[in-house]
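Listing S7. Sequence submitted for prediction.
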Amino acid sequence: MRWSEPFLPRVFSSDRASGCFPVSPRRPAADRLSSPASPPGLKAQSLRGAAPPDVSSPVEKSGGYADRDESCSRPGEAIPITVTRERAGLAGLSAAWDELAAHSGSPMQQYAWIHACADTFVQEGDLSIFAAGTAPRITAIAPLIRRGGGARLELPAADEMYEPMDFLYADAASLAPVTNALARTKLPILLRRIPAESPVIGALRRSYRGGGAVICRPVAGCPWIALDSTWVRPEDKLNPGRRSDLRRARRIAERFGPVSSEVLSPDPKAVGPLLDEAFRVELASWKGSQGTALASDTTRGRFCRRYAVAACERGILRVCFLRIGERAAAMQLAVECGGRFWLLKIGYDQAFHRCSPGLLLVRETVQYAAERGLHGYEFLGIDEPWTRIWTREVHRCVSVWACPVLWRALAPLGFDLVHQAWRRLRLEMGIGR
């Protein structure tokens, strides 16, 4: 196995309050990618110590809405609440956004993710980004969008990508001005998948106390591995039967040709060719016949390209391959940040299905993450049979409905239940992955 020397980001930790719900891991995740090859002239680069650009322009007060939350301020001091409606207003939040995102270490909290979501999935004027304070002293951000013709507020890309997201905050107390402002909008709010331990849940309950309802229920969690030095030999963590399966898969792969793997931190100019091949390989898999490959789903394909370029510029993108002979048999699109390896997209060429190339590549990248000294391997998506080969640990998630009046919350809640039933049906039909 070989890898280019990537940027190792600063490790952050979170001190969020404990959560409250068990999880039933049934909801499907978004489609995942397939594998690219390394084009001639690929240049992997080291961005050790590089920092994101400093953008410190004031937060734009788009859409004509600016409010002050007096109840959460010190005597004689107000906390301004600014709502950004247009995509052009996001740039003024970028520096403060990533400073707050550092508390979680999650790439879904970073500005690069929300910017790619806004450019791809959100209509102009449908953003509703609530920020407490003024740049550069912003203490909390609620990254929301309008859905249902403006009838409710949701987290962006909740349907399209279905990865866990959350509000951003300096500490739990800083959420109160934002959640109070949300309660005053009189709009139902759906947080489709957030961490079960998020202090946002308690903040919403306090803001809606006596004047609304906050309904919280368990949804599918995210599998992960707590890494330490013993994971440099991942196969030792498997049961005897799984170890035998892994050895057999390797022997079958070697009959096709020499087997190698790599983890690359590519130069931004090389990202396009890598993703081009990724899409072609995925199209050759079962996703191509189902019509769910990114080459067919042009909207999600655009998102993946935009986010990959942004992550590459920040030095956190990792493009991983398992190669058999000269062909890429499996790939992963991942990011390395917050001391963790985050697995965003996976895929394998159906022509090599007999040797389980996706399983072999997971083994290689788990080893890579352990040797790098990372403390977590985040599968993202949902808990599935293939992830249980490696771990039974799951980050618990919940879905939260908040509405000023209980009867107004019931109709959207019913819509959400029907929506989840449809997603489960798609998974059973083999469409969701």
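Caption to Listing S7: primary sequence and predicted structure tokens for the chain studied. The mean pLDDT is 80. The chain has two domains: 2-11+22-49+223-394, 62-220+396-428.
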